[in-house]
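Regression check, methionine sulfoxide case 170:
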Amino acid sequence: MVESLKWDDLGAARSEQYTEVLSRIGGLLEGEDDWVAAMATVACELHQAFEHFHWTGFYRLVRPDELIIGPYQGGHGCLRIPVGRGVCGWVAARKETLNLPDVHAFVDHIACSSTTNSEIVVPVLTPSGRLLAVLDVDSDDPAAFLPQDQVGLEAICAVLGARFQHTLSL
Ligand code: SME
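Current build output:
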C-alpha cells in the first residue's frame, strides 16, 4: 500500500514536470521555424529537467533507410544508425515508441555507453504520419522511464511533428 502510494506520487510529480517542460518549450520555440534550433532546444530542456536523463537527443531520418545523429546532450552518440537496427532503428521502422526497462534484454541494442541500463525512444511524426526523427533518451538507472515519461515525451514529439511537418531539409 505504502509502496504503491509512493509510486503514484512519483508518477504524478513526473507528469507535473512534463507539463512545465512542455510549456517552457512552447515559449522558447514561439516563432521559431528552424528545425535544428528546435531539436537542440528540446534536447537541452529535457536533459536539464530530468535527473534520470543521461543521454538525450535526436536521430534524423535523412534517407528512407538511415538515421543520422542530430542535436543531443550527454556523451558522444553513434553517428549513423540504419533503419531497422538498434532501438532507434526499430522505432523508426515501426513508428511506435519503445520503452526498454533493461537494454541488455534487447538483443540488437547499440551500446553508445557501457553505463546505460534503460532507454526510451519516441518517433517524431507529422500529423500525416511521416517520420521526421526519433527522440532517444538513455538512463544509467534500470527501468528509469515510467508511463508518464512516455506520455510526456510523446506530447513533446507531437508538437515538433506538427510544427515542422513541412520541413524539407531533415
Ligand atoms: N542505443 C541506441 C543507439 C543510440 S545511443 O543510445 C545514443 C540504439 O540501440 O539504437
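Comparison notes: The pocket of methionine sulfoxide is lined by residues 55, 77-78, 81, 86-89, 109-110, 112, 119, 136, 138 (CB under 6 Å). The CA atoms of residues 15 and 148 lie 6 Å apart. No diff flagged against the previous build.
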